[in-house]
Amino acid sequence: MTEDLIDRYLAAVARELPSAKRADITAELRDELMSSVEGREEALGRPLTEAELGAALSDFGNPLVVAGRYQRVQHLIGPRVFPFWWAAVRATFVVIAAVYVVLIVLDLIMNQRLGLGGLPSPTFVLGFAFGAVTLGFALLDWFGKPETMARWRPERLPPATGKRRSRFELLTEIGMGTVFLLWWTGAIHFRNTVPEIGLRIDLAPVWDRFYWWILAYAVVEIGSNVVALVRPDRAVLVRWMVIWRSLLGATVLLGVIQAERFLVVTGPAGKAQAMFDLWMRVGIAVTIVVFVGRAATEAWRLYQYERGMRTPVAL
Amino acid sequence: MPSEADIFETLRLELRRGSLILAVLGQLRAEHYGYTLRKALAEAGVEIDEGALYPMLRRLEDQGLLTSEWRVEERRNKRFYRLSAEGEAVLGRLVEEWAGLNASVDAILKGTPQ
């Protein structure tokens, strides 16, 4: 009876052990258990009852736990990687949440004409992102060099004072920029039709002429936000990128605004085409002014910095 | 919120974790198999459960600090462990570290806070 229960216990442990070490480890555990049982029996002067043996095995530990202690990896994310994993999870969640909140609000404002049906549910995306980030960091912890993550340079610390865009703001802009880039390149689609009334809205051909320029703008915008996020000390570079992208945006829109039509509206609202185009024209003109103003502001700040009139902290 | 007893238990385990390795290495200057090693440690006042001891012995052997061999004793096959030459050297350094740390902590605990 004693050996039968011990055999069953050791078999349960063995099933969870790596095959290369299974026989060796179970032989050693068998000796420990047998020695322990014999020691107790000698002290009691009688064989152990089934209940006493069961209690001894129970004390020895759950087979899964006992076998688990022999595994090389004892954790999914170790303490060295944990702070970086946690920061990455938070950042990923903020970006996803921000993107979804903006899209849902836009959809509500547009009376559900944005057509978010093609997008996966936020719960699925958050779950998938959590799994993907965790797997990435776990692999880094097991096979990579996690100690290199902790290396840092004090000179790269951001200024202690001065107005800086928050991480939330930067991450949201990166998220929205990425959604725009995916939409612009055709990787994702939003609904542009209202089948119930036969309405369809498409971009006018003028936008095709500036396809690559707008793509470049989107890439530089995401790039400048990524640099601002990961290298907050490179404020001068970020300002140059903002100037460059603002001028690029203004130039593109100056080209676009020359066109007669910006959208092609078909269906019952076709009569409203002129109004749609007027709104677009006003919107584009305002955006050009904003772009030029932003470039000028950044250029003026850089000029002041170069002339020593402004400290890097206030840059 | 963890109770005071839980906090104490967590801190006690943290305090013991490093010193258990030192005790095991020290005890294995003489050859032992798992069961007798555990008994010897318990008699010296260092209780360690089997679930922690055996994986620790494997790890220390993988690190080259212990050597082991299977031998039949008392009609059963047993795995005997002993400190390796490298283990002796590491133990020597750990003991120095232990003594230094012990003296420092003792001085702090017995002295007047600055």
Polypeptide structure, described:
The complex is a heterodimer of chains A (315) and B (114). Chain A is mainly alpha-helical and 315 residues long. Chain A has three domains: 67 residues, no CATH class; 76 residues; 151 residues, no CATH class. Helix content of chain A is 65%, strand content 3%. Chain B is an alpha+beta fold and 114 residues long. Chain B has a single domain, classed as Orthogonal Bundle (Arc Repressor Mutant, subunit A), CATH 1.10.10. Helices cover 64% and strands 16% of the residues of chain B. In chain B, a hairpin with a 2-residue loop joins β2 and β3. The longest helix of chain B has 26 residues. The chains are: A mainly alpha (315), B alpha+beta (114). Chains A and B meet through α2 of A and α2, α3 and β3 of B.
The CATH C-level class name of chain B: Mainly Alpha
Spatial extent as radius of gyration of chain A: 32 Å
What's the total count of β strands of chain A? 3
Terminal-residue CA separation of chain B: 32 Å
3D shape of chain A: elongated
Percent strand of chain A equals: under 5%
The largest β sheet of chain A comes out as: 3 strands, antiparallel
Order of strands, widest sheet of chain B: 1-3-2
Largest beta-sheet details of chain B: 3 strands, antiparallel
Structural class of chain A: mainly alpha
Order of helices and strands of chain A: HHHHHHHEEHHHEH
Count of β-strands of chain B: 3
The helix/strand series of chain B, from N terminus to C terminus, equals HEHHEEH
Distance separating the two termini of chain A:
80 Å
Mean pLDDT of chain A: 83
**Low-confidence residue ranges of chain A:** none
